Amino acid sequence: MSHIYYPDSFQGSSAFKKGSSPRAYFEGWYLKHVSSDRKHRFALIPGVFIAPRKEDSHAFFQVLDGMNARYEYIRFPLEEFHYKKKQFQAGISHNRFGNNGLSLDLKGKTFEIQGELNYLNSVRFPVTWKSPGIMGPFAYTPFMECYHGLVSLDHSLEGALSINGRNVDFTGGKGYIEKDWGRNFPSAYIWMQSNHFHKEGSLFASAAKIPWVTGSFRGFILALYFDNRLIRFATYTGATLKEVKVSSKQVWMTVEDSRYRLEIESHRSSGAVLMAPYEKAMIERVSETMTASISFQLSEKKSGTILLEDTTEIGALEVQGDLPQIATVLD
User: Fold this and answer.
1) How many of the other CB atoms lie within 10 Å of CB of 283?
2) 34, 196 contact by CB (below 8 A)
3) Can you give the C-alpha Rg of the chain in angstroms?
4) Rounded to an integer, what distance in angstroms lies between the CA atom of residue 90 and that of residue 28?
5) Is residue 43 within 8 Å of 28, Cβ to Cβ?
6) Do 43 and 146 fall within a single domain?
7) Are 36 and 172 in contact (CB under 8 A)?
8) Count of CA atoms in the C-beta half-sphere (13 A) of 3
9) CATH number, domain at 132?
10) Beta strand pairing status for 188-194 and 166-169?
11) Residue 142 — very low, low, confident or very high, per pLDDT cuts 50/70/90?
12) For 47-78, how does the pLDDT look when each residue is reduced to its tens digit (9 = 90+)?
């Protein structure tokens, strides 16, 4: 409970101290970076996996080159992970990352990355006692399979990285941060995100099968940030997920509350398969693209007046698992 109001910070201190966890435990941050010319799109995913057997526990850095769908999972001894309490400042070996930026000296078989980036003018997701982050009151529930946190909806980048010997300048680009922690990823979920629309703003949307004491339910969380205003749709806000449809090429989501209607359409593209937790191991199970197109339309529910609409070709998208549990599958 002492960490509940700091969802961006490391949550798994008790499991980390033991070096093992009876039901396994994972925690990871998703750090997305897009250069100003949009030609370089890299997601860096540091984290830990704490297994029932200490010898299987480890820290990791996942690297995703979103433009070329190239990927690598770089493993480290668990004891090389370090963190600060009640703040997002952590590191693995000589690599450091947090709210204000990162410093890297990564050496894998596919990627070698060195350099520093600063994160500026971050749009932080609000945390209150009624709703400590994007999970809302579900953050207080002790038996959730997977918890989610939105750390920075949007921020600007400053600095450069040497990637396989090539200098890539990210100054003037944009970043985004979220995270997950718990025992396991949902058995079925849809996730999409972009902060590269024609207008300045950010969109996050997710629907998933959520295990519960009475069985399971289809949970959803959506956050739309434009014109310095955050509009949130979620199971706990009283909103209704009216429609989720999936085909081999597209994804559609429609959500309503008492005031607004939000319609989203995304076009899928090829990506890379990332590692994710499954029971007692990390396995390749999540296909992510960073070249999806996403369009949305926000309207007043009663009048139908369109309040905001936009589109992007720089969207991140994951469509994973037994989809009929949460969506209508068209093909």
Assistant:
1) 11
2) yes
3) 19
4) 11
5) no
6) yes
7) yes
8) 17
9) 2.40.370.10
10) unpaired
11) confident
12) 999 999 999 999 999 999 999 999 999 999 99
Q: Is 149 helix (H, G, I), strand (E, B) or coil?
A: strand
Q: Which residue has the tokens 């996996």?
A: 49
Largest CA distance in the chain: 60
Q: What is the pLDDT of residues 84-130, one digit of tens each?
A: 999 999 999 999 999 999 999 999 999 999 999 999 999 999 998 88
Structural domain boundaries enclosing 104:
1-183
Fill in the DSSP letter of residue 141.
Answer: -
Asked if residue 223 lies in contact with residue 260, where contact means CB atoms within 8 angstroms, the answer is: no
13: left (phi over 0), alpha (psi -120 to 50) or beta: alpha
Whether 127 and 92 share a structural domain: yes
The pTM score is 0.96
pLDDT tens digits, residue range 27-44? Answer: 999 999 999 999 999 999
Among 46, 43, 50, 85, which Cα is nearest to 68's? 43
